[in-house]
Amino acid sequence: MLTREHPIDLFFGGMEKLGPGSDIDTLNVLDLLPRRSRRLIVDAGCGWGRQTLALAGRLQVRVHGIDSYAPFLATLAQRAKERGIGHLVRVHCMDMGDIPMVFRGIDLLWSEGAAWHIGFSHALQTWHAALARHGFAVVSERSWLGGDIPAVVRRYFGRTYPEMQTVGDNRSAARDAGYSVLATYTLPAVAWMEGYYDVLEPRARELLGHPDRTVREYAAAMLEKIQIFGSSGGCWGYVFYVLRRE
Ligand SMILES: C[S@@+](CC[C@H](N)C(=O)[O-])C[C@H]1O[C@@H](n2cnc3c(N)ncnc32)[C@H](O)[C@@H]1O
């Protein structure tokens, strides 16, 4: 029988994460929050759950990982078990836009590199109802950081992510959605390279010659993304918005 490897496995197979980030940064951001007991923690768009595992391991409280793609959740559950923290991770295959229909009184809602799928402002507005009063939301979002934007970078995002806003605009959006902004934290360049682009770049180069056109196109798009990152000079990045529901 002919079996074809899924494109996600071709590119991301064996990796810890599906987006830029690191446990050090996740825990640095966690440390920006006031220490208090948290009973209900949700990770929206958890994917393979690098950050889910980091949060559960540090807090020793169950984290509910939410994703709309079941195979990611199966991998997360397996990884949690292998680390001996299977009891601290519960997975839910569902749309992150439906969180308020399933969860109420969330003490901490985390989302790394995923809220953009339903729109940053929309995600904040939607999740507000699910948070406990004075509960926290930590949501990362690609944001313009200031400084000159090279023309090639502006054109690229005009085509691929025209919704990207400045940090100031995102702070205002968070306030308009009913949060106070406690802090922001910008993911350092190393978190994009280590275990992410430095793995994906050689894979993508090799996959440019793949027989499946979709895979070839994805490989080309990945290489363009990596090249744009290299030419951006830090004018944009992933920013964590550390928010408290008011
Ligand atoms: C770029 S990945 C980030 C994954 C993980 N947070 C990380 O940083 O490694 C985005 C994730 O969001 C999930 N996703 C996209 N749209 C979603 C939706 N509407 N509801 C739930 N999950 C969604 C994808 O399946 C994917 O796992």
Architecture overview:
The protein is α/β, with parallel strands linked by helices and 246 residues long. The protein has a single domain (20-189, 234-245), classed as Vaccinia Virus protein VP39 (Rossmann fold). 43% of the residues lie in helices and 22% in strands. It has 10 helices and 8 strands. The chain has helices at 7-12, 23-30, 50-59, 70-82, 99-102, 120-128, 151-160, 167-176, 190-207, 213-231, and strands at 41-44, 63-67, 89-93, 106-111, 131-144, 165-166, 179-186, 236-245. Strands 1, 2, 3, 4, 5, 6, 7 and 8 form an 8-stranded mixed beta sheet that branches. Strand 1, helix 3 (50-59) and strand 2 form a beta-alpha-beta unit. Helix 2 (23-30) crosses helix 3 (50-59) and helix 9 packs antiparallel against helix 10 (213-231). The chain is globular, with a radius of gyration of 18 Å.
